[in-house]
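Give me structure tokens for this 508-residue protein.
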Amino acid sequence: MADLSEDYRLGPGWDEMFAEPGLPRESYAALHATLQPLSGAELGARAEVLAHAFAGRDASEPGVERRLALDIVPRIIAAAEWRAVERGVAQRIRALEAFLADVYGPGQVLADGVVPRRIIATSAHFLRAAAGINPPNGVRVHVAGVDLVRDERGAFRVLADDVRIPSGAGFLLENRRAVAQVLPEVFAAARVLPVESYPVMLLRALRAAAPVGVGDPTVVVLSPGVHNAGYAEHALLAREMGVELVEGRDLVCAGNDVAVRTTAGEQRVDVVHRRIDDDFLDPVHFRADSVIGVAGLLNAARAGRVTIANAVGNGIADDRLLYTYVPDLIRYYLDEEPLLPNVDTYRLDEPGVLDYVLTRLGELVLKPVDAVGGGGVVVGSLATSAELESVASAITADPRGWIAQREVELSTVPTLVGDGLRGRQVQLRSYAVNDGDEIRVLPGGLTRVTLPGSGPGDGSKDTWVLDSSPAPDAHRAAAVTLPVAGRPDPGPTGVGEAHRQQQGARGC
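Here you go.
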């Protein structure tokens, strides 16, 4: 019987399971010991069960959505590594909170020249309508997504921030439940920190953000509706938090009070966890043609009658050009050195930088500052001559609209491809929740990977952060061999090309 990892090849980047061919790192030892005796057919049968379990949950959800395919082999992060990530992510969010309060308030960071005023004045995400709105507990980033990659040395680096309406946490919860069903023995042996507390963490943060004097706030999740790609996630989060899922047509603003229409009449709403972009949130202040927003919602927030989470105008903090200043913001507001470095990035609007970048287009990754996810991203080493010429014209015409980054050789994690394991590049979206007293980073996150039959980054892996606390007796189990499933292995067909995913990952 062929070893699952018999043909596994280490790539040029950091492999997260293997330090050397056939030699697993300590954090992966239990998983490797469990997988090694299995044949591709056996693991494939498990993967098929996993796919069916996932599909069963899909069928229960209304609306249209794009699910991420799920690989059966989890990604593992050691406890000590995760503690460093936690501290770094929390530090970053503290700095961004301070920046948002400042830039929509006194603007001292601009007066002191830490961030050039032109960066703010030219950003499409700076909303003057949000100036002067002070959230009840001072929190603007109730939930954040911070995208991370491991570089060639295995060090985590920040790729992007999303403090507007970060998505993907629903996939994370679904992944954990599905994998726990098909790998229960491995799951128990590995002692994985739970992620199921995310809805509780989020609800606590939303309730803590209620307007002053509201002791038992009513929280709703505001979705664009069933035709939005994220609707199932919106429904899942509302259900898990035990709050109403509403659309714009369900809410009404009168006298700066917000209410939801119910069969029993109108009920006051205190906190709106919106899943609608700023542009469409309130037709009074933003796009007048929006039919999914709530007229008057921003005025209600300004009057302190309702809290919008995340706050309107947060997009200025994850403008990709502003991202290059986050290390400076950490030093400025916190008087600390950044714990997580950015990916090396060039600001094209600085003197001499554009000319330098134009000579190295084939070695860099070019990203438009306003695009979501991988939209508009050009990976120089993979681009055709025509694509390089096109991006050269674009960045020359609008240097403010682009950044350039060093192309990181992303880390790889074993992934089931055909009847064996192959290294596939991954990146991670971490989630942080701020309730005003503490910023909590969910242990794990959403790992994106390219799977056979899916587009770049359209697959996912369950992400396990190991528990380093003393093990109770019940958990002192050695790695065990999976029972052999009886189903034949159809296996994925076709092997996807290893894909460099240093794309903007905000659109999980």
